[in-house]
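Saturday, quiet lab. Running sequence design on the C-alpha cells for the scaffold JK sent over.
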C-alpha cells in the first residue's frame, strides 16, 4: 500500500479536529473542531467547505436515519441539531453532577443506538463514562472510570465493541448483545509509549481496526486478534480520528490537532488529510434511529 496522503481544506487548521463523518445524503465529510466550537462540511462534489459555530464545545455529530439533521454531543450533553436553518435542542445532560465534563467521541450501532463517552475537559480526573442513547431518547451509563474516552467502533459483525481510554493508552473490547448489553470487558490492545496514545477508530470491510495515534504521527491497522497489519505515517504529531467515505467507501479521511503545538514548525498540524487506502474499503456509518 502506497503511504500517500494529501491535505484537504488546508486553510482550516483545527485546534482539536475530531469526529470525521461520511454522509452519503450530503456527499460530504463532516468533522468538528472541539475547542473552537466549529462543525465543518467538506463537499466531495466540489471541495467547498462550510463552517457552523456552536455555542459550546462540540465533540461529534451523527446523522439520523428517518429524519433530517443530526444528533450532536456538546459540552452539556446530547442535542438535536439542524443546520439549514440552524437549530439546537437539548435532549439530556447525562452528567449534571460533573459540569467540567464534556462529550468526546461517539458512533452509532446497526440498531440505531448512539454509544458516546464523556471525559474531564481538563484531563485531570478519571470521571469519564460510556453512555448509550437509545432511539426513544433515553440514556444509560454502561461503563465508567475513564480519563479520556475515545473510539468507539464496532466489529464488522457488531458482536464486539471497541472503546478506548486514551489516558491509559488502552483499547478495550466488549461483547455486545443485540439488546445493547455490554459484557466481558477485556484489554484488547495496549499502546507502548513510543506509539503515542490510541485515539479515534474505525473498522474496515475486512474487519480490521484502524486507530489514530495521538502523539504518534500515524494511523495503524490491526487484525481482530490485535496483530499490527500496517502503519501509515503522517506529517502531523496529533492524529485524532478516521473515517471511510465516498459512494464506494474507498476513500479515507483523517483529522488532526494543533493544540499546544508551534504551528510555524508543525505546518500540517490541525489539517484534514485524505489517505490512499490501497483498495481497502470501509463500512457504512450507523444512523441514529430516533
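Result came back. Writing it out in full:
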Amino acid at each position: 500500500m502506497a503511504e500517500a496522503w494529501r491535505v484537504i481544506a488546508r486553510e482550516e487548521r483545527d485546534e482539536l479536529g475530531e469526529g470525521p463523518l461520511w454522509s452519503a445524503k450530503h456527499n460530504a465529510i463532516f468533522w468538528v473542531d472541539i475547542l473552537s466550537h466549529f462543525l465543518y462540511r467538506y463537499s466531495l462534489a466540489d471541495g467547498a467547505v462550510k463552517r457552523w459555530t456552536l455555542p459550546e464545545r462540540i465533540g461529534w455529530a451523527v446523522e439520523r436515519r428517518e429524519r433530517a439533521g443530526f444528533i450532536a454531543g456538546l459540552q452539556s450533553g446530547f442535542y438535536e441539531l439542524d443546520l439549514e436553518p440552524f437549530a439546537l435542542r437539548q435532549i439530556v445532560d447525562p452528567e449534571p453532577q460533573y459540569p467540567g465534563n464534556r462529550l468526546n467521541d461517539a458512533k452509532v450501532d446497526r440498531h440505531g443506538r448512539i454509544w458516546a463517552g464523556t471525559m474531564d475537559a481538563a484531563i485531570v480526573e478519571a470521571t469519564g463514562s460510556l453512555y448509550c442513547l437509545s432511539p426513544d431518547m433515553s440514556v444509560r451509563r454502561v461503563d465508567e472510570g475513564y480519563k479520556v474516552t475515545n473510539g468507539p467502533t464496532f466489529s464488522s459483525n457488531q458482536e464486539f465493541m471497541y472503546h478506548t481510554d486514551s489516558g491509559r493508552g488502552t483499547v478495550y473490547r466488549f461483547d455486545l448483545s443485540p439488546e445493547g448489553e455490554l459484557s466481558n470487558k477485556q484489554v484488547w490492545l495496549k499502546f507502548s509509549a513510543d506509539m503515542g496514545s490510541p485515539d479515534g477508530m474505525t473498522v474496515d470491510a475486512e474487519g480490521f481496526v484502524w486507530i489514530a495515534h495521538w502523539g504518534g504521527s500515524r494511523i495503524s491497522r490491526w487484525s481482530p486478534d490485535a496483530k499490527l497489519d500496517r502503519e501509515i505515517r503522517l506529517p502531523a504529531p496529533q492524529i485524532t480520528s478516521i473515517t471511510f467515505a465516498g459512494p464506494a467507501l474507498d476513500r479515507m479521511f483523517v483529522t488532526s490537532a494543533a493544540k499546544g503545538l508551534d504551528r510555524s514548525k508543525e505546518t500540517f498540524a490541525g489539517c484534514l488529510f485524505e489517505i490512499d487506502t490501497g483498495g481497502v474499503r470501509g463500512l457504512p456509518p450507523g444512523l441514529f434511529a430516533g
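Notes for JK: Residues 196 and 215 are 4 Å apart (CA to CA). The chain has one domain: 5-275. Ask whether to fix the surface positions before the next round.
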